[in-house]
Amino acid sequence: MTRLQNDTFLRALLRQPTDYTPLWLMRQAGRYLPEYCETRKRAGSFLNLCKSPTLACEVTLQPLARYDLDAAILFSDILTVPDAMGLGLYFAEGEGPRFERPLRDEWEIRNLAIPDPHAELQYVMDAVAEIRRALNGSVPLIGFSGSPWTLACYMVEGGSSDDYRKVKAMAYSRPDLLHHILSVTADSVVAYLNAQIESGAQAAMVFDSWGGVLSEAAYHEFSLPYLKRVVDGLIKERDGERVPNIVFTKGGGLWVESIADIGCDAVGLDWTMDIGRARKLVGDKVALQGNLDPNVLFAPPEAVARETKRVLDSFGNHPGHVFNLGHGISQFTPPESVSVLVDTVHEHSRKIRAGA
Hints:
By secondary structure, the chain is of the alpha/beta class. It has helices at about 10-15, 35-45, 45-50, 55-65, 80-85, 105-110, 120-135, 150-155, 165-175, 175-200, 215-235, 255-260, 275-280, 300-315, 335-355, and strands spanning about 70-75, 90, 95-100, 140-145, 205-210, 235-240, 240, 245-250, 265-270, 285-290, 320-325.
């Protein structure tokens, strides 16, 4: 296997010293890039883009051609797992992802089965292998999945939701059914991520995008234990190299210490919590990833630089920081703002390391 030319991202996740703070962006291959929009147009639909290993590889590499990023992330969708479970994923114009067969009846829930990642999801594994070959050791490749709770939200609601009424009603009226969904989904996520690692992913990230909509008690019952189950089941070493993992709960700043206790290597933060305060709370237990407000990128270049430095200064001269946005980059972001962000992170973090 080709030796990595830039392993700064992986070393930061393992809290090892680095010359600067590495950077990647959630949703870095996306609609803010004109070249992505062209490829998506050629694909004909978002699902076609996801299910073509060649096109998925093409868009994964596009942001790396533009920016000096320290990691690539597989281009895919978090809903591939429930789609492989037979729920019938489709994308309605202006509505986002929907399922033809959301989980409503007890028999459907009891019949849920773990999909074989090398059958229904082989197109994802083929994309991972193709991207890894194309990267040729330049930067690491991140594999990812949605969290059990977040996937369950989509599976029960049938798509995105403003109030999560159906899944929360199930949590409070039939917790046994929701726990069954979460259990099967957690085991599916483990199998899916491990197959990505075996196909070439060098780090794994779990997106708990909707964990923050839960109450304290509900989060500790319906999200956190299943995040731990996923982390416990992940491959931790491959080809003699550690495969670090990141857990990101949007809106999870309240529970950063609890998340740090589940055994993950890094905790992702959204923009609502000061990263320096988070570092003091978790100590040396985990690395932290984040956490610039994505909307900063709509401000003038000097404001982008100022707010980026604020995050870096708050974390300070300590190992274990991967710079990222606090959530996915907006499709309306000016591409030139990302250039300012990337340059500022690399330049300012080098000054911090040098004690300047």
